[in-house]
Amino acid sequence: MIKHRGFPGRLPSTDFQFTIRRANPKGATPLTRRERYADRRSPDRRADAAFVAALWENFGDQPFERGNLDAGRLSWLFGREVLPASDPFDPADYEALLVLDVDLARRSFPTAFDQEDDA
Predict the structure, then answer these.
(1) Per-residue pLDDT tens digits of the chain, which is 119 residues long
(2) Which of 49, 74, 90, 116 has its CA 20 to 30 A from that of 104?
(3) HEC string for the chain
(4) Could you tell me the sign of the dihedral formed by the alpha carbons of 44, 8, 70, 61, in that order?
(5) Contact 42/58 with Cβ under 8 angstroms?
């Protein structure tokens, strides 16, 4: 399992986890598409936006290996803003390649890209 150095471990001042410390000996938790409802709590939406911002800052529009990125956090974005980058795709593989759908991510989480616009 690759560890993404420099990727934030969590959303500051919260328990929203972005990375895991070690691989699960039984295998990676499968990525599944989780439904995001309009009435989601504000802290959950803020964590999603911060995670998208970290993905953009670290990987841009290039494919990246799942590695130590948290399956739960990825699953909130999987199938929409985060897509499989390879075919066939194994959702339970730490080496699976993913890619950020930048256009959809910008529409879904405009605040994640605000810092870029200020530069």
Answers:
(1) 878 888 888 888 888 898 888 878 888 889 999 998 888 888 889 999 999 999 999 999 999 999 899 999 999 999 999 999 988 999 999 999 999 999 999 999 988 887 654 44
(2) 90
(3) CCCCCCCCCECCCCCCECECCCCCCCCCCCCCCCCCCCCCCHHHHHHHHHHHHHHHHHHCCCCEECCCECHHHHHHHECCCEEECCCCCCCCCCCCEEEECHHHHHHHCHHHHHHHHHC
(4) positive
(5) no
B/e letters for 26-47, b = 16+ CB within 10 Å, e = fewer, are eebbebeeeeeeeeeeeeeeeb
